[in-house]
């Protein structure tokens, strides 16, 4: 029964004190005892240097211990003092002998009465024992042991204590033990936690996540098995005390059953290069059964960075254009500071890129509804004379190019205002999204035959629109451009990025080339004789097909409604849907009016216009949301954290490769890549294997930081995929805009292997794997 | 009896720090409006646009006394651009009074206010545990550093590395703070109980 247990049983005056007092230590020299921590003239601590021998033979081992006696209510600190305090320190000076590490008995836990501050240490009496080995050559009469002790002694207030303790031990032909002191040391050493390897216990830790995320809490389970699979006894209060673990705070265990514990902790905001280990001391058993003390250590998990790791936190509210003006230099020629190699394309090449990029847009899912419509229109027209087809193709191309120029004008205007914009920027504006939705719904209802477009007001609903006016074709061109922008095709990013950073003339030229590319398929129909004849013959199927296309357009609005959800939340979605219902009502009224004539017709159209304006005013008030926690699909996406440059730097500094996914909800190419490539098990395993810090830069809403980052790499839109290596942090690799699993895995593997040599990578591979930009 | 209740409340199987909201690095700093020793109010919001250094202090604590004897805080503050950085001391000691702070300020001759938090509300909202315990809050009101003033708990190092200086310089320079948390050392904050 030690004094510590007796104290737990609530006996005042501690048997331990009596036990220690009973040991005479008559020969304790004055130099081996000191008092310190003077408090109003009274010392609060007494230190004494004890040894368990009276004579030592050279080469033999004995024990020395610093005994602390503290006034009631005062305590000193363990090697991890906890929330405050200071580790007790013993500096030995032992010529002729060597001293091993201090053996720390399992400490007491002290809490302030409000439970706010927890510290670990010793009160009453504590002895810190160490093994001492007298050297073979110790012959000169006596060994001198000196201990310079520093301790912080606290009750409510704290007093630093400094003790200088010294004594000499006679050297003789044999070692003579001091049984009394040895017994006291034995009792104290019995409370020193033993390493698991010595006690035969096994421990395993299983966390609930593959990584510790910087700044975030983590949970898991710890299982402890006794020697030979034996059961582990139950525990009682304050049974586990963690050591200081770099990168982890507040690590604690909760007992769930014999040998089963819940692990709870919090990762610090700075990423550690090496995976933190759970280290601490464990006290098994209860006061009634007696205790067993163990030293536990087990790996936790690698650490990955998180947003705001010592950096700018996620923007709580997207900056308005005005803020962006203040925050970001205009993306002018000068602003592209360190462009990636693609930016060095010349104007000619940029135009070629733009043209092909525009042509490629036709293969993107965004444009499909319009393409189908156009194809449908053409199948009807090819039966007529070629000239009419040419006129319509021209009108369509004209609509496309006019819209492109309008976009270019918009870019220039915004840029002149000093803000930075990017390809697809218009989708960051809720009103624009609402407008496009309205057009799509109206278009769909037109295809269903609710009303007719054009001046042919006598045409009845459902009757084929023979005129299919040129304006209609031009309108389809406009719609094609509007819908195409979210699909930034390969090559396109480069061309547009080039344009965005160039002069006004270049912007206009590039956008024109882009428009021509987009219009290409239909221009080909016109320009290549006989090609148009290959289209299917028109017939009754076309009416049905037209209506099916209406559903394709409605499906497109579903996607845009989802985009609106990202921009303006659930309320925004509801407002938009209400507006779309109103649009439906307006088109129906308009269709009714078309069947009438004169005043009635005018009245109906006026009512329709009134409904449109009123509903628009009522519903189109979108409050931009902060970044919503859009549920990212797929296992890999669960590893993702919001992009933040500081967090990226932290991860790189910690030797982790970094993968950044620049994306937006309205960017279909991005979503396609995320679902088909980034979410695969292969990519996830590669990320976990190479400890990749995976960041998502979400550009759904305006974010000047992301716009600037895109511009830095010569891009004007998403998607953009960057892979950074800790070995070459200034040389990011820009992946292609259409990902494959192999491409991603190889890139992160290269980045991981190119770690700085001190982290176990080889610099040789960097040169090969990372093109110098 | 009360102790029994406390013991039960702490739970025989409960280990770990109680869940108080703390000032977390990377998150917005808890806002406050507190009077200083002269009765003047200070709020975090009024210092938006400047870097704010919070120093938990207690003139009775030997660690604080050591730093004031060697002018650690004042020297650190002098190294910053006064237009960009605000230094606020906070005393959450339960028995502290404005008069005590004023007398100590006069004696030591430092320029910054000592916020009076005898109730401990501000201290606990930040999770301040020791004196000194330092926090650096950036221009946007986000905590960028929390921990010790330097890497020299025992005051024995001839050239200690000043964590607060490193952090503030990094924040002003738009850099990442190299070590955004360190373990604070010092006396326990003497909260009202």
TrEMBL record, chain A:
It is a multi-pass membrane protein. It is found in: Membrane. It holds the Pfam family DsbD_TM. Keywords: Cytochrome c-type biogenesis, Membrane, Redox-active center, Signal, Transmembrane, Transmembrane helix. Residues 55-162 form the Thiol:disulfide interchange protein DsbD N-terminal domain. The chain crosses the membrane at residues 347-372, 393-412, 432-455, 476-501, 507-528, 548-567, 573-590, 602-622. InterPro entries: Cyt_c_assmbl_TM_dom, DsbD_gamma, DsbDN, Thioredoxin-like_sf, Thioredoxin_CS. Residues 1-26 form the signal peptide. GO terms for cellular component: membrane. GO terms for biological process: cell redox homeostasis; cytochrome complex assembly. Its main location: membrane. The keyword Cytoplasm does not apply. GO terms for molecular function: protein-disulfide reductase activity. Residues 350-561 form the Cytochrome C biogenesis protein transmembrane domain. PANTHER family: SUPPRESSION OF COPPER SENSITIVITY PROTEIN, THIOL:DISULFIDE INTERCHANGE PROTEIN DSBD. This is Cytochrome c-type biogenesis protein DsbD, protein-disulfide reductase.
Automatic annotation (TrEMBL), chain B:
Keywords: Signal. Residues 23-173 form the Thioredoxin domain. It comes from the Bacteria. Pfam families: AhpC-TSA (PF00578). PANTHER family: OS07G0260300 PROTEIN, THIOREDOXIN-DEPENDENT PEROXIREDOXIN. It comes from Pseudomyxococcus hansupus. Gene3D superfamilies: Glutaredoxin (3.40.30.10). Residues 1-21 form the signal peptide. This is PPO candidate 1. GO terms for molecular function: antioxidant activity; oxidoreductase activity.
């Amino acid at each position: 029964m030690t004094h510590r247990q007796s104290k737990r049983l609530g006996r005042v005056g501690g048997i331990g004190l009596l036990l220690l007092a009973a040991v005479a230590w008559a020969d304790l020299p004055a130099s081996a005892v000191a008092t310190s921590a003077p408090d109003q003239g009274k010392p609060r601590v007494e230190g004494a240097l004890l040894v368990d021998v009276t004579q030592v033979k050279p080469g033999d081992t004995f024990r020395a211990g610093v005994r602390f006696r503290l006034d009631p209510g005062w305590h000193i600190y363990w090697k991890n003092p906890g929330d405050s305090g200071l580790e007790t320190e013993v500096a030995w000076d032992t010529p002729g002998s060597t001293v091993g590490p201090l053996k720390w008995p399992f400490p007491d836990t002290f809490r302030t009465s409000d439970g706010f501050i927890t510290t670990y240490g010793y009160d009453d009496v504590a002895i810190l024992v160490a093994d001492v080995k007298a050297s073979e050559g110790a012959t000169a009469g006596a060994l001198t042991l000196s201990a310079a002790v520093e301790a912080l002694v606290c009750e409510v207030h704290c007093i630093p204590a400094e003790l200088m303790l010294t004594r000499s031990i006679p050297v003789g032909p044999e070692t003579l033990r001091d049984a009394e002191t040895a017994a006291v040391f034995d009792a104290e050493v019995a409370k020193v936690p033993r390493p698991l390897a010595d006690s035969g216990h096994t421990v395993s830790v299983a966390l609930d996540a593959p990584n510790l995320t910087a700044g975030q809490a983590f949970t898991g389970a710890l299982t402890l098995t006794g020697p030979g699979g034996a059961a582990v006894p139950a525990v009682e209060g304050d049974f586990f005390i963690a050591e200081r673990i770099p990168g982890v705070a507040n690590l604690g265990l909760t007992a769930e059953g014999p040998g089963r514990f819940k692990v709870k902790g919090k990762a610090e905001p700075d990423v550690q290069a090496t995976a933190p280990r759970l280290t601490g001391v464990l006290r098994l058993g209860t006061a009634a059964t007696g205790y067993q003390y163990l030293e536990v250590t087990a790996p936790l998990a690698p650490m990955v960075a998180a947003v705001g790791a010592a950096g700018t936190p996620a923007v709580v509210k997207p900056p308005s254009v005005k803020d962006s003006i203040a925050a970001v230099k205009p993306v002018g020629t000068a602003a592209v500071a360190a462009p990636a190699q693609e930016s060095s394309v010349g104007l000619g090449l940029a135009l070629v890129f733009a043209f092909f990029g525009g042509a490629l847009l036709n293969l993107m899912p965004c444009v499909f509804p319009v393409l189908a419509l156009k194809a449908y229109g053409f199948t009807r027209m090819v039966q007529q004379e070629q000239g009419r087809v040419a006129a319509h193709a021209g009108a369509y191309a004209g609509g496309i190019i006019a819209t492109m120029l309008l976009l270019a004008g918009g870019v220039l205007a915004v840029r002149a205002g000093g803000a930075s914009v990017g390809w697809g920027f218009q989708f960051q504006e809720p009103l624009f999204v609402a407008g496009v939705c309205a057009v799509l719904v109206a278009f769909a209802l037109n295809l269903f035959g609710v009303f007719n477009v054009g001046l042919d007001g006598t045409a009845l609903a459902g009757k084929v629109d023979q005129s299919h006016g040129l304006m209609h074709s031009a309108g389809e061109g406009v719609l094609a451009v509007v819908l195409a922008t979210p699909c930034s095709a390969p090559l396109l990013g480069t061309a547009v990025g080039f344009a965005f950073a160039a002069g006004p003339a270049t912007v206009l030229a590039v956008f024109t080339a882009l428009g021509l590319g987009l219009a290409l398929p239909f221009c080909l129909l016109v320009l290549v004789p006989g090609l148009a004849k290959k289209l299917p013959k028109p017939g009754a199927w076309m009416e049905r097909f037209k209506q099916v296309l209406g559903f394709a357009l409605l499906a497109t609005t579903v996607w845009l409604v989802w985009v609106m959800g990202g921009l303006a939340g659930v309320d925004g979605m509801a407002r938009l849907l209400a507006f779309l219902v109103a649009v439906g009502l307006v088109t129906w009224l308009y269709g009714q009016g078309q069947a009438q004539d004169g005043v009635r017709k005018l009245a109906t159209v006026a009512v329709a216009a009134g409904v449109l304006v009123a509903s628009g005013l009522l519903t189109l008030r979108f409050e931009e949301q902060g970044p919503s926690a859009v549920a990212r699909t797929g296992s890999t996406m669960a590893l993702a954290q919001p992009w933040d440059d500081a967090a990226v730097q932290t991860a790189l500094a910690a030797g982790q490769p970094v993968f950044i996914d620049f994306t937006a909800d309205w960017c279909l190419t991005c979503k396609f890549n995320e679902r088909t490539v980034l979410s695969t098990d292969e990519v996830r395993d590669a990320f976990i294997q190479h400890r990749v810090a995976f960041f998502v830069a979400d550009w759904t809403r305006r974010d000047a930081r992301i716009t600037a980052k895109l511009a830095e790499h010569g891009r004007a839109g998403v998607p953009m995929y960057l892979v950074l290596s800790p070995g070459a942090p200034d040389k990011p690799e820009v992946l292609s805009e259409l990902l494959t699993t192999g491409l991603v895995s190889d890139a992160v593997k290269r980045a991981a292997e190119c770690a700085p040599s001190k982290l176990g990578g080889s610099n040789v591979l960097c040169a090969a794997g990372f093109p110098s930009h | 009896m009360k102790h029994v209740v406390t013991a039960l409340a702490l739970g025989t199987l409960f280990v770990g720090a109680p869940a108080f909201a703390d000032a977390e690095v990377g998150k917005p700093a808890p806002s406050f409006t507190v009077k200083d020793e002269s009765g003047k109010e200070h709020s975090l919001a009024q210092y938006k646009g400047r870097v704010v250094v919070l120093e938990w202090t207690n003139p009775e604590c030997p660690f604080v006394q050591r730093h004031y004897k060697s002018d650690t805080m004042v020297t650190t503050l002098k190294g910053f651009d006064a237009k960009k950085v605000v230094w606020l001391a906070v005393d959450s000691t339960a028995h502290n009074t404005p008069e005590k702070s004023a007398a100590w300020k006069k004696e030591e001759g430092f320029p910054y206010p000592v916020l009076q938090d005898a109730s401990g509300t501000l201290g606990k909202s930040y999770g301040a545990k020791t004196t000194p315990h330092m926090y650096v809050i950036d221009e946007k009101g986000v905590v960028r550093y929390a921990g010790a003033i330097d890497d020299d708990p025992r005051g024995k190092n001839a050239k200690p590395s000043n964590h607060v200086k490193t952090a503030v310089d990094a924040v002003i320079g738009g850099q990442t703070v190299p070590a955004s948390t360190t373990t604070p050392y010092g006396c326990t904050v003497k909260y009202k109980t």
